[in-house]
Design brief:
Layout lengths: L1 H18 L16 E3 L8 E5 L9 E7 L6 E2 L4 E6 L4 E5 L4 E6 L8 E2 L3 E6 L62 H10 L17 H5 L3 H12 L1 H5 L6 E2 L4 E2 L4 H16 L2 E9 L1 H14 L7 H15 L5 E3 L4 E3 L5 E3 L11 E2 L7 H17 L12 E5 L18 E5 L3 E6 L9 E14 L5 H16 L7
Parallel strand pairs: 15-17, 17-18
Antiparallel strand pairs: 1-2, 2-9, 3-5, 3-8, 4-7, 5-6, 7-9, 10-11, 12-20, 13-14, 15-16, 18-20, 19-20
């Protein structure tokens, strides 16, 4: 019997080894975890132990959301075996070759596991499936667990302390309820869009609470942000994944897996990347005129805003200074041909950064359509693999919160990140030689560029920011 098993294993080993791996992730840019051949000389028929693949360059853990195949089902190239939840999105794991799913090692909904940890067994012959009904994974097939720490004596659980609610904030004019119909003048809608305000948070002073243009001009977003912080407090910042745990004088808010992954990556980037920051003030009068002209041409229902023009200006600046569109790769600096921009959308635990591919080749309308689609997907929870993809550059817009400027953390392996603040009316020196006025009122924007000094030195960063400023102050160049 042992001799027969050995011969059978040797006869099929070369054929399976030539395949290398029967499964791969179609959309992953990094190779999936290697598939391991196990038990060729054991009592089990020839089979493959398939590990959890890496679905993104930064993924280290994941969760099986659902299995599309059951034990005993056959599969072919391109068929979805299971859906895997990463730190940002749910992505399908597709087969590249044919086979039979003999055993599911990690049920759907289980705790997150490390990349490479076995999740299923596959075989080539249907009659071999029944042999794995009681399959027990060998200890060597799974990643070695960390050395457990010495167990401490459990502390007695304190009785929940009654929480005294904070005093109610001072009454303010009522704003439109979230998701409700907003009654505002067309000019108010346009001003709110241009200045990056959420019009539903603006209190109207017109007839029957109608929002008028003066309400937008006099609106202070910082009051709304302060109110949101006082009402939401720690839960919004902690991205709750479970019920709060009260203690004596404190409350613990559990962190979701995605929030932990994001925090870990940002902390790692901040440690590894030598950041420096450049800031510039930009006159936005001309870009607002261009936005108004384009909106009139294609219709206000297109929801064309200033953010889309900022994204296009950033893409143009990357073409003017291509050495900023790069990554530090330890032994080389990799400069990319395509400008793929991650735009940060959402808040709290629903903070995502979908990528808009090849922004340099897209028109302003195309960028606007993709940006609006991304915002809608976040609101409706319909996330695609693009929400977990890494581009070559990231833009963060904090204007809707009334923030003037921000120094963003660079997301490895990118080399730069841009943050823009709120549009502000400021009194500035009048540069019109024919005017008798010494000063004039202009709409200004503050932009801050974070740079990786290993890739982008101070001179290159200054050149990029100068090009960005030039494109926004002379926006006709965006149409070339």
């Amino acid at each position: 019997m042992a001799s027969t098993s050995i011969c059978r294993g040797l006869s099929q080993l070369s054929r399976v080894a030539a395949r290398s791996s029967s499964l791969s992730l179609q959309h992953s840019k990094r190779a999936a975890a290697p598939l391991t051949l196990r038990s060729w000389f054991s009592s089990y028929p020839p089979h493959e132990v398939v590990g959890l693949p890496a679905l993104s360059p930064t993924m280290e853990t994941g969760t099986i959301a659902s299995w599309n195949k059951e034990e005993g089902d056959t599969f072919g190239p391109g068929e979805v075996l299971c859906s895997v939840e990463t730190d940002k999105a749910t992505v399908d794991f597709e087969a590249q070759d044919d086979g039979i799913l003999a055993k599911i090692l990690v049920p759907a909904g289980s705790d997150e596991i490390q990349c490479g940890q076995p999740i299923m067994i596959t075989v080539e012959e249907g009659e071999d499936v029944s042999s794995f009904a009681d399959y027990v994974l060998e200890e060597s097939a799974a990643p070695a667990p960390a050395e457990p720490a010495a167990a401490a004596a459990p502390a007695p659980t304190p009785a929940p302390t009654p929480v005294t609610p904070p005093p109610a904030a001072a009454s303010a004019p009522a704003a439109a309820p979230s998701g409700g119909r907003v009654v505002a003048s067309p000019l108010a809608h346009m001003l709110a869009k241009d200045m990056g305000y959420d019009i539903s948070t603006v209190a109207g002073t017109g007839p029957d609470g109608r929002i008028i243009a003066d309400d937008i001009r006099e609106f202070d977003p910082s009051t709304v942000a302060a109110s949101a912080m006082s009402t939401e407090g720690a839960p919004a910042q902690a991205a709750m994944a479970a019920a709060p745990i009260p203690g004596v004088g404190y409350t613990d808010y559990p962190i979701s897996a995605s929030a932990k992954e994001t925090a870990m990556r940002l902390a790692q980037s901040k440690r590894n990347v030598p950041h420096y920051y450049l800031t510039v003030d930009i006159t936005m009068d001309e870009i607002l005129k261009l936005r108004s002209t384009l909106s009139s041409a294609i219709g206000e229902e297109s929801n064309l805003g200033v953010y889309e023009l900022i994204v296009k200006a950033a893409a143009k600046s990357m073409k003017a200074v291509p050495s900023a569109n790069a990554s530090w790769m330890d032994s080389v600096v990799r400069v990319y041909d395509s400008v793929d921009i991650n735009v940060v959308v959402g808040t709290g635990d629903k903070l995502y950064s979908p990528v808009i591919r090849d922004c340099g080749a897209k028109g302003i309308k195309g960028i606007s359509d993709e940006l609006n689609a991304a915002v809608t997907a976040v609101e409706e929870g319909e996330l695609s693999s693009e929400f977990a993809s890494m581009g070559t550059f990231t833009i963060l817009n904090l204007g809707m919160y009334g923030v003037k400027s921000c120094a963003p953390v660079i997301r490895e392996p990118q080399a730069v990140a841009l943050a823009v603040g709120a549009l502000e009316n400021r009194i500035v020196p009048n540069d019109d030689p024919d005017s008798e006025e010494i000063y004039k009122e202009s709409v200004m924007l503050t932009a801050t560029l974070s740079c990786d000094h290993r890739v982008v030195d101070g001179a290159v960063g200054a050149q990029w920011l100068s090009a960005f400023k030039s494109h926004l102050e002379s926006p006709s160049t965006l149409l070339l």
